[in-house]
Design a protein that fits this description.
- The protein is mainly α.
- The chain has three helices and no strands.
- The protein has one domain: Orthogonal Bundle (Helix Hairpins).
- The longest helix is centred in the last third of the chain and has 28 residues.
- The protein is elongated.
Length: 91
């Protein structure tokens, strides 16, 4: 139970860290990938009691891979257009 609490706390910390990296696109993607990895570990711990619900883990794994591919393609297109991975925000 303590591990689940720590993983939940890690997810909240990574979410706050994700919103603090608004100017550098690559750091935001790395934090987002670590959030996906920690959610996979959290779902694996939660679903380990029932072996028939492991398809949700495979679904999360597939969505994580799609998110990583989409994030990297957006990063490459943004760097190709602007020449830098820094996001110039007006806010």
């Amino acid at each position: 139970m303590f591990i689940l609490y720590l993983l939940s706390l890690l997810m909240v910390f990574l979410l706050l860290l994700f919103f603090s990296y608004q100017s550098v696109y690559l750091n935001a993607l790395l934090v987002l990938e670590s959030m996906v990895l920690s959610s996979l570990v959290l779902s694996l711990f939660l679903l380990s009691t029932s072996m028939n619900n492991l398809y949700i883990f495979m679904l999360l794994l597939t969505l994580g891979v799609c998110e990583a591919g989409l994030g990297l393609s957006l990063l490459m297109s943004y760097i190709k257009i602007t020449g830098s991975s820094y996001i110039m925000s007006k806010f």
